[in-house]
Design brief:
Keywords: ATP-binding, Nucleotide-binding, Transport. With 235 residues, the chain is of the alpha/beta class. It contains 8 helices and 10 strands. The chain starts with a strand and ends in a 5-residue tail after the last helix.
């Protein structure tokens, strides 16, 4: 996935002003920024729900602006709150959404994907109405695995998760990346970023103001760098 010098304006407000971002297969990239920084706009451009005013947005070489359906077919999006059919089990939801994508998967294959996504076997046949947020997200990742999507977009994935669930979800995301999926995560969670991300991009002024290797820093140092960059103190 690559975004090159992307500009997006809404009326008189500039949301993105020359955004450059490249994401490789098997990489987890965390896009950090405050509310209004342009994280959601970036995701919507990749999904083809918005069209850039200037620049290019490409998914697997496909221009998401001119061929959004083809780009979207290679992409899975997991929002902050994953919507499943509450009366159906995780297995049933997975097989149903796979069918919508034109895939016919049997129970054994569905169970393989749910296991790979980290959903406990005892939950596979339970109604999704009783699932926690973390469990619903894991079903979402299982759906992405079933579709063999090349790009996984996550919007605030650890918001509202307790520490145990957030740690488990971090492992699930890393496992998806190890299978070759590129993962772009919009988040505020600096602590989990150190566990999950290979690179961190600080979104400020409508562009990636700085890229950071999170593993080089302790959590407190990463937080200091992030806040300093947003205030313009880092050059």
């Amino acid at each position: 996935m690559a975004l090159g010098r992307v500009v997006k304006q809404f009326g008189g407000r500039t949301a993105l002003s020359g955004l450059d971002l490249t994401l490789r297969a098997g990489e987890v990239y965390a896009l950090l920024g405050p509310n209004g920084a342009g994280k959601t706009t970036t995701i919507n451009l990749i999904l083809g729900f918005l069209k850039a005013d200037a620049g290019e947005v490409r998914v697997c070489g496909i221009d998401a602006g001119t061929d959004p359906i083809a780009a979207r077919a290679r992409t899975a999006y997991i929002p902050e709150q994953v919507a499943l059919y509450p009366g159906q089990s995780g297995l049933e939801n997975l097989r149903y959404f796979a069918t919508l994508a034109g895939l016919a998967i049997d129970r054994a294959e569905a169970e393989t994907h749910l296991a790979a996504a980290g959903l406990a076997p005892e939950a596979w046949s339970r109604p999704a109405s009783g699932y926690s947020k973390g469990m619903r997200q894991k079903v979402g990742i299982a759906i992405a695995l079933a579709r063999k999507t090349r790009l996984l977009l996550l919007d605030e994935p650890t918001s509202g998760l307790d520490p145990s669930a957030a740690a488990a979800f971090s492992g699930t995301v890393r496992a998806a990346a190890e299978r070759g999926t590129a993962v772009l995560m919009a988040t505020h969670d600096l602590y989990r970023v150190r566990e999950m991300a290979d690179r961190v991009g600080v979104l400020a002024g409508g562009r990636v103001a700085e890229e950071i290797d999170p593993r080089r820093y302790a959590h407190t140092d990463l937080e200091r760098l992030y806040i300093a960059r947003l205030s313009g103190a880092v050059t």
